[in-house]
């Protein structure tokens, strides 16, 4: 009798750790469905959507604002703005601040420098230099741009705390029509008290030559008066506005129905 030994059970070899890693890598390569891949895809999509929104939202916001009436206003400031010519291709080439002769023309004929005239007009508690009817040595400014009170003291390191701002900046005026003026009109414009305010120095520097489309006072309570004065100045000198500037002005005037152009 022959006894046949039972067949040996088949031996199943477990894949080595190296093979396991290779298999996992291949699965990830052909099926980007792991958590890391999904996160990367979402980040890319978010970036694309963000860029698109950044390009489209400002235009969409203005369009929606016009539809719902945020760019409508009443009062003489709004009426005057409606009469200003629009020029969306302003050209600042050739601008030279010196051509306006600021502080080189005595608009009121009182013999005082323009800066001193505006300081004396806009400050309170004004102290003049002894024996000098023009030079302001100290005073208090209720700054319209920040809403803060500034104690002005004349001095090499302190005078700049209060500066004289052209409400319609000289460069803005140049590209809005002043490039075509004669020298006398430019001098009158640059030294016209109607276009000048004593203000916080850093705010004036921050504003630079910006129109209302790019800069407004941080003191929101003064924005209506500020925009109305810009409109008054542009109307007086027949300067143009851009579409963006006009819309920014209307958006401000919408918040103060009946806003009037300030008297000269």
Question: SSE layout and pairings?
Answer:
Elements (H helix, E strand, L loop, with lengths): L16 H14 L4 H33 L8 H7 L31 H9 L1 E5 L7 E7 L6 E5 L8 E5 L3 H6 L7 H8 L5 E5 H7 L15 H14 L6 H11 L11
Antiparallel strand pairs: 1-2, 2-3, 4-5
Helix pairs in contact: 3-8
Report on this structure.
- The protein is mostly helical.
- The protein has one domain (69-253).
- The chain has helices at residues 17-30, 35-67, 76-82, 114-122, 170-175, 183-190, 201-207, 223-236, 243-253, and strands at 124-128, 136-142, 149-153, 162-166, 196-200.
- A hairpin with a 6-residue loop joins strand 2 (136-142) and strand 3 (149-153).
- The longest helix has 33 residues, at 35-67.
- The radius of gyration is 34 Å and the shape is globular.
- Mean pLDDT is 85; it is low at 8-14, 25-32 and 46-60.
- The chain crosses the membrane at residues 39-57.
- Residues 1-17 have a biased composition (Low complexity).
- Pfam families: GmrSD_C.
- Keywords: Membrane, Transmembrane, Transmembrane helix.
């Amino acid at each position: 009798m022959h006894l046949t030994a039972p067949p040996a059970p088949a031996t199943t070899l477990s894949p080595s750790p190296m093979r396991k890693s290779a298999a996992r890598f291949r699965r990830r390569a052909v099926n980007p469905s792991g958590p890391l891949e999904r996160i990367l895809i979402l980040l890319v999509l978010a970036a694309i959507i963000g860029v698109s929104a950044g390009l489209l939202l400002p235009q969409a916001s203005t369009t929606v604002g016009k539809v719902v009436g945020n760019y409508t206003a009443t009062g003489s400031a709004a009426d005057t703005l409606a009469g200003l010519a629009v020029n969306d291709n302003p050209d600042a080439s050739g601008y030279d601040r010196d051509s306006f002769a600021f502080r080189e023309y005595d608009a009121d004929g009182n013999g005082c420098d323009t800066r001193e005239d505006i300081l004396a007009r806009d400050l309170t508690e004004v102290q003049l230099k002894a024996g000098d009817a023009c030079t302001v040595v100290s005073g208090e400014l209720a700054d319209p741009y920040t809403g803060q009170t500034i104690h002005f003291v004349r001095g090499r390191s302190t005078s700049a705390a209060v500066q004289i701002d052209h409400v319609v900046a000289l460069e803005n005026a140049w590209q809005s029509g002043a490039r075509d003026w004669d020298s006398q009109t430019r001098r009158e414009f640059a030294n016209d008290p109607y276009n000048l305010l004593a203000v916080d120095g850093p705010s004036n520097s921050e504003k630079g030559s910006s129109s209302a489309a790019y800069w407004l006072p941080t003191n929101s309570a003064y924005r209506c008066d500020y925009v109305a004065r810009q409109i008054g100045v542009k109307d007086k000198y027949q300067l143009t506005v851009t579409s963006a500037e006009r819309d920014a002005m209307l958006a401000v005037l919408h918040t103060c129905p009946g806003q009037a152009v300030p008297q000269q």
